[in-house]
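Design request, tokens follow.
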């Protein structure tokens, strides 16, 4: 809603040629288009780029200057790198464009952002993120959100949201956990995977059991007789698999795992039959139908 209102206000500025809302995934492209459409009674205020050629037409056509153009950073990058669009791109290069960037911490550190910065010479970038990158959590290249977009304009914290009654207050109850000597665990991964991920596969199984038992014993009370669900964040995907197995063996709670297979296997590894069976088991256990 905040980003939509920003776009709407900017559209009224005569000095601005285009307002482009930039996302990093196709599903967010569709979701944003639907959400923005629900915020307005006009079906002509929001336009979605279906492909790279369509994006060029949306930016280049004067009648679209009164529309919020929604597209992915991948489509925009394809346009900028495609020689077929060179003639049209020359007209776009100097336009006064405002990019409203969604989830800017996730997609703006690579070459696509550099390509955008090099091509356009008259743009303003307004970036939104709930998890900005600071020096303390910067990646290998050391770049932060502030390095790319400059000083933050405004910060809305969890405490602000609580004070505004937009979210429920946060309560914190520390629990003393058991400290048991770490041991190597049997995994759904094959031997090569174990060798390549040896640090990740060293987990404290005894400690995990104590946490699972504690959650099982206190779940009804903490969730008000299962009125609420619960989310457990762990330090690694191999560890989440151990939690999953123990929850299934030691409790009657309905559980599942959320993770990316590519993160689990690594970019150069292929999924084997044993791993495939495990992932299929997780899905089937959660939704037998």
């Amino acid at each position: 809603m905040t980003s939509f209102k920003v776009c709407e206000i900017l559209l009224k500025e005569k000095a601005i040629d285009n307002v482009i809302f930039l996302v990093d995934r196709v599903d967010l492209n569709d979701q944003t288009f639907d959400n923005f459409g629900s915020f307005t009674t006009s079906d002509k205020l929001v336009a979605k780029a279906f492909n790279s050629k369509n994006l060029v037409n949306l930016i280049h056509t004067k009648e679209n200057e009164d529309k919020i153009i929604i597209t992915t950073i991948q489509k925009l990058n394809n346009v900028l790198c495609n020689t077929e669009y060179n003639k049209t791109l020359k007209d776009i290069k100097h336009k006064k464009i405002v990019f409203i960037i969604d989830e800017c911490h996730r997609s703006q550190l690579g070459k696509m952002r550099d390509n955008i910065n090099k091509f356009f010479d008259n743009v303003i970038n307004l970036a939104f993120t709930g998890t900005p990158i600071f020096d303390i959590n910067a990646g290998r290249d050391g770049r932060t959100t502030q390095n790319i977009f400059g000083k933050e304009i405004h910060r809305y914290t969890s405490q602000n949201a609580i004070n505004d009654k937009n979210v429920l207050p946060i309560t914190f109850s520390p629990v003393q956990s058991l400290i048991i000597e770490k041991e190597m665990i049997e995994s759904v991964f094959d031997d090569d995977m174990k060798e390549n991920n040896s640090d990740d596969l060293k987990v404290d199984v005894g400690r995990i059991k104590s946490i699972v038992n504690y959650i099982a014993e206190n779940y009804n009370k903490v969730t008000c007789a299962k009125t609420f669900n619960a989310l457990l964040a762990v330090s690694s995907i191999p560890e989440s698999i151990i939690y999953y197995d123990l929850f299934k063996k030691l409790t009657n709670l309905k559980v599942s795992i959320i993770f990316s297979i590519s993160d689990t296997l690594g970019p150069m590894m292929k999924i084997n039959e044993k791993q495939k069976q495990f992932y299929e088991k997780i899905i089937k256990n959660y939704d037998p139908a």
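Comment from the thread starter after seeing the answer: thanks! The chain has 14 helices and seven strands.
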